[in-house]
């Protein structure tokens, strides 16, 4: 059982400062059992997707509780850059949040303000919730701003153009390039392997290294993920729980029935 002091640390920041590149995956099933299983599968971090998965707060709470029993770090990808969504996720104990579709530094500053208590931000205060150990971490409010990690997601050419300005916003801990939406906004929807998209992906990795900020990305298969790691991405995700399940199920069916099944 973690102590009240442990509750205020941010394990994802520790991952980013480690010797190896943290490997994660997307949780699209919405299942606490699968979230726990993925945590037992030795992933370093797991992303709970509140943007594209029909989750309510009790679903998210159950997934956070399931992951807490493993060595994986949870990240909550919010549905939008809205203050109430930060408040709900953070109060449930999601110390690390990813914010989608941030296109400029002004939006990044808003995101940071939503994640921080006054005077650094406008996060609403409550004394009793899971994040404070249900009140057992008595200095939670004083230390919470330092334990919250904010990841800003770049998903459009506009956001990529503003990379350096976004990275320079105080309180932005890391960036994350979303290759799926990037490819769509570039006119190559569903094709992140397109040379034009790949050129941007490589350029973002180079610029993030120059700016001194960690940057993550997700890829569909080990080959592409390994390529992203070689390009200098600081943390990477491979596929999703559902993608892995469907692929493995298909492979098993073909093994039994043959390739024409």
TrEMBL record:
Pfam family membership, one: HpcH_HpaI
Protein keywords: Lyase, Metal-binding
Organism domain of life: Bacteria
InterPro entries associated with the record: Aldolase/citrate-lyase_domain, HpcH-HpaI_aldolase
UniProt domain HpcH/HpaI aldolase/citrate lyase: residue ranges: 24-246
GO molecular function (one): lyase activity
Record protein name field: HpcH/HpaI aldolase/citrate lyase family protein
Organism lineage string: Bacteria, Pseudomonadati, Pseudomonadota, Betaproteobacteria, Burkholderiales
């Amino acid at each position: 059982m973690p102590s009240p002091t442990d509750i205020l640390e941010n394990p994802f920041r520790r991952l980013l400062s480690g010797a190896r590149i943290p490997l994660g995956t997307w949780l699209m099933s919405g299942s606490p059992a699968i979230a726990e299983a993925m945590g037992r599968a030795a992933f370093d971090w797991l992303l709970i997707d509140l943007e594209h998965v029909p989750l309510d707060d009790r679903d998210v709470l159950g997934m956070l509780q399931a992951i807490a029993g493993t060595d994986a770090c949870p990240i909550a990808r919010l549905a939008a850059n809205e203050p109430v969504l930060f408040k709900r996720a953070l109060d449930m104990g999601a110390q690390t949040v990813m914010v989608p579709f941030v296109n400029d530094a002004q939006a990044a500053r808003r995101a940071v303000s939503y994640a921080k208590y006054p005077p650094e931000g406008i996060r609403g205060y409550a004394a009793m919730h899971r994040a404070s150990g249900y009140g057992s971490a008595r200095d939670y409010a004083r230390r919470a701003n330092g334990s919250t990690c904010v990841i800003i997601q770049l998903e459009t050419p506009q956001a990529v153009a503003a990379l350096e300005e976004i990275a320079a916003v105080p309180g932005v801990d890391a960036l994350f390039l979303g290759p799926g939406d990037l490819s769509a906004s570039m006119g190559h929807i569903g094709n992140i392997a397109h040379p034009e998209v790949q050129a941007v992906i490589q350029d973002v990795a180079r610029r993030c290294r120059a700016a001194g900020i960690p940057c993550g990305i997700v890829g569909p298969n080990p080959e592409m993920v390994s390529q992203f790691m070689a390009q200098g991405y600081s943390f990477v995700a491979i596929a999703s729980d559902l993608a892995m399940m469907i692929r493995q199920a298909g492979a098993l069916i073909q093994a039994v029935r043959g390739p024409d099944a």
